[in-house]
Design a protein that fits this description.
Helix content: 10-25%
Number of helices: 5
Radius of gyration: 20 Å
Order of helices and strands: HHEEHEEEHH
Structural class: alpha+beta
Strand content: 15-25%
CATH architecture of the largest domain: 2-Layer Sandwich
Shape: elongated
Length: 211
């Protein structure tokens, strides 16, 4: 990584202080409630400017669309800032949707979670003989809610494509049982999520010897 400077919130010189809108003095971002409403009831904010929210264009588009529907269309639907699929497009892609393990523990308590994980070997890596224990998949399940999947993570080829598909299932309330009942497409990378049976708490070996 040569440079990763992120974005600055340019909010200090646009007159927010004149109408009383509060900002986070540390980063210039705007705190809002779950309906994108600032501390001034008639002022809303969306997108990268939001304090503690994801800086992703599709998130801003979705939030703006839903805000307009609430304000002018009689809707009550709010933007889901948790189950947002996203990918880091590094040479070996990383994709995720839902909670990271650390935040899930903070939110639900470690005793209420079950984490399933495994290493896997993509088919296309067999001929060039690449390391068969480089790719990784993990799901985080809420034991108190029928083992509902609250976090999905994958490190491997085409992680963005894999994550996008599972994101819709997570929005529909995907559970570990439903994953286990799903027939995998062999030999795809996404198939690994239908065959995961080793929990992190068990301490069992997750290395693989083949695709």
């Amino acid at each position: 990584v040569l440079i990763a400077i992120g974005r600055d919130a340019c909010t200090r010189n646009i007159g927010l202080q004149t109408i009383g809108v509060k900002i986070n003095e540390k980063n210039g971002k705007v705190p809002v409630n779950d309906e994108e409403q600032t501390n001034v009831p008639y002022v809303y904010a969306i997108g990268d400017i939001l304090d503690g929210k994801l800086e992703l264009t599709p998130v801003a588009i979705q939030a703006g669309r839903l805000l307009a529907q609430r304000l002018y269309g009689g809707s009550s639907k709010k933007c889901d800032y948790i189950n947002v699929p996203t990918t880091v497009f590094t040479p070996l892609e990383y994709g995720c949707c839902g909670y990271p393990e650390e935040k899930a523990i903070d939110e639900y308590g470690e005793q209420n979670l079950e984490v399933y994980h495994t290493l896997f070997w993509p088919l296309e890596w067999t001929v060039p003989g690449r390391d068969n224990n480089t790719c990784y998949a993990k799901i985080i399940c809420n034991k108190q809610d029928n083992n509902r999947v609250i976090g999905l993570h994958v490190l491997g080829p085409n992680a963005g494509e894999v994550t996008q598909g599972f994101a819709a299932a997570i929005k529909c309330g995907l559970t570990k049982e439903l994953l286990d009942e799903t027939i995998g497409i062999h030999p795809t990378c996404a198939e690994v999520f239908t065959t995961m049976d080793i929990t992190k708490s068990s301490g069992q070996d997750i290395t693989q010897k083949g695709c």
